[in-house]
Amino acid sequence: MSIPTAEQYDFTPTQDWFSHNIPHWKSLFPHIRTESYHVKSNGARILEIGSWEGRSAVFLANELCKARAPTPAPAALSSTSVSLTPSHVHSEVVCIDHFDMFKSEAGKERYKRINHNLSLTNKNFRIIPEFSVTGLMRLLNEAVVAEDQDPVVEQGFDWTYIDGSHRSDDTLLDGELAWRLTRKGGLMIFDDYLWNVEPETSIEHPKRGIDGFLALHRGEYERLSGKEGLGGDKDEGKEYQVVLRKTVDMRIGYLLPSNYDTVSNSSKSNRSDILTSSAFGYGMNIGVACDSAYAMPTSVLLSTLIEHTPGRKISIYLLDCGLSELDKIRIQRSIPTSSSNTTLNFLSLPSDSLTTRLGSPVWAKVDLVKVAPVERILYLDGDILVRGDVWSLWDIDLEGNPIGAALDVGNPMGHAGYTTTPECCSGKYFNAGVLLMDLTKHRAEFDELVAQCHAKKDSKYADQDALNAHFAGKWKELNLQWNAQGLGTYANYEAPGRHWIDRQSMSNPSIVHFTGPVHPSLVEVLNPYVQPYTSKPWGYAGSPGHPYAKEWVAAVGKTSWLEFFEGDWKDLCEEAKKRVAEEALEKFQVELGV
């Protein structure tokens, strides 16, 4: 098909409010970073609110869309959505404009012209002759339905242009609804930010609506307008068009009653589960606690948790047991920027905390019971690497128990200082590194739990022994997929109680728990009964033989701690290694009486 000439298009010459934007817009094309357009090289999907006769839509179709197969001529004048777009299409222009609801001759004429003009492009297009809110809701409803089709029909837009109503409240609403349809990496453009027809402070001017949108979604976009090399005005806040690149995933935010059963019972359980929980506003509460010594590994924990649990609303409650301001900044910066559904809340220790009274942060998980402002929480130790979506863990029914935990692989029947009895808990002893907790039940017996903590303060595994004693016979056993311990070392050995250990469940775990000391003593390193020895992957000795130690080290590189880990931390590890050797020599000499 030959390229149409300017004379073939039917535009009103005196109504060209767009062409001066062409150089600026062309400079923006390379900044589209959506997976569909930038990675898969599909043509763009374009959404335009306020199209008039289609001048900007024609330009975008010719520049960014791919040609379509021959189609019939456009439909006659209709108040319903007109589409020359085949199903499952990757590239199209969608225009929303009310065309005076066809109640004026001018509106009818504009509708006729836009159909004519877009037909000449030989690109897929769709015209929705409605007010923007109903038109956008039509697209959002279609996106909800498409999510549950198999294969999934790709939704969202790579380029969204808002040039509809000039009222600030209308502009804010258009932006909010269109944002939900804009793909991660896609561009959204607000027009008329510096419109001079009405005062900027008036509701009849779009600026207040655009400013409200920018404030509401701060952290979810990169502001491209006002930057050097992108055309247009050079000062942010003084640009006539505000250009944003979205940095977070699409979120439709609701389900349709007509397809709810399909969604909730879909065989595509993981995707449908994410869609359902997101729409209903369900999320998970994560509890962690650390001081400066564990700030770096805790950052790895949180980074991998969010990376492997996409699309979920996650509220993190971090109990501060002695963090510096720099620690907090580094932890915050380690949260993936793409996760707009994640909030990080720093909590202070209560005035009567066990951590303070008993002199160790190991008791912080109990203090968290008192201060976390929620009723259910998933507690995770800082020496954990998350490798899979933990939503299934969060969703486990505790069956009336106050706590869910996995067996302690090293001591499934307890240890020399703590023995279990078949009468109270089938003789099993759990690990306290991963705990799914009903805090309401915990708080009902909190004084008794605190008493157990004081009684076990000098026990070998203090907090873990106290929790096992308090919840004996009242805990839900979790699969070791959720707390894989001793991998590459003692998990492979036979010992009393190890017949309970399902090693197959730890073959590809969702949560890896690095047990053992950060800096092992010489006795621990040389212990012939546990080889390879057990230690943390970030300590001076590493975690030799552990199948996921290198994965942990790689995960540090995705946090804000990499420079510290490769610099100052390595120096500290060398000092720790020398100290361990010196302490061992000193003990050796004492034994010899030297």
UniProtKB/TrEMBL annotation:
GO MF terms, alphabetically ordered: glycosyltransferase activity; metal ion binding
Keywords associated with the record: Glycosyltransferase, Metal-binding, Transferase
Pfam assignment, any one: Glyco_transf_8
Family, as annotated: Belongs to the glycosyltransferase 8 family.
Protein name according to UniProt: Glycosyltransferase family 8 protein
Organism (species): Candolleomyces eurysporus
Top-level taxonomy: Eukaryota, Fungi, Dikarya, Basidiomycota, Agaricomycotina
